[in-house]
Amino acid sequence: MMQQIAEASPGPRARLTGVLYLLYFLTAPAAQLFVHRPAINIAINLIAFAFYIAVTLLFYYLFKPVNRILAFLAALFSLAGCADAILGLFNRAPHKLDPLMFFGPFCILIGYLIFKSTFMPKILGVLMALAGVGWLIFMSPRASRLSTLIEVFGFVAEASLMLWLVVKGVNFERWKEQSSAAGASARS
Fold this sequence. Notes:
The structure is a single chain. By secondary structure, the chain is an all-alpha fold. It has one domain. The chain is built from 8 helices and no strands. Helix 3 packs antiparallel against helix 4 (about 70-90). The longest helix has 26 residues, at about 40-65. The chain is globular.
């Protein structure tokens, strides 16, 4: 299946990424409605993380032409955050790290990759990078007065990216050009 996704055109792949991101946005908060029903809460969280893992892998393929190493590093941060959060659901995390330690850098890297891309609006990159910085600040005990503002900003940034991908996708011609240029530089 991942081979089919990797070979798919970036336009439909970008829209699929947006749809899966939307499904994550719908399922993750739904899990909070079932905090007092642990089995249902865990099941919904697992579904939400499955969506986020898929989004992570799709982002890797989408942004690989921009910078393969940074796209891979972003994917590692996101997958580590998902793994940490999933282990936390079952009280099996080997440490007490906040998953935002992984998702903050993920958002910063995705923001940078969007900003450096030629196929998406730079403002989305700026918003995502700032959201990533916000998630890292959010973990600070001194940020308690800013927590609501940071959460709202992070939500707006990620929702903007998600909606852009659903509605607009990516500029196929520019993605193709950037992908060809990345392939040519990798061969030389």
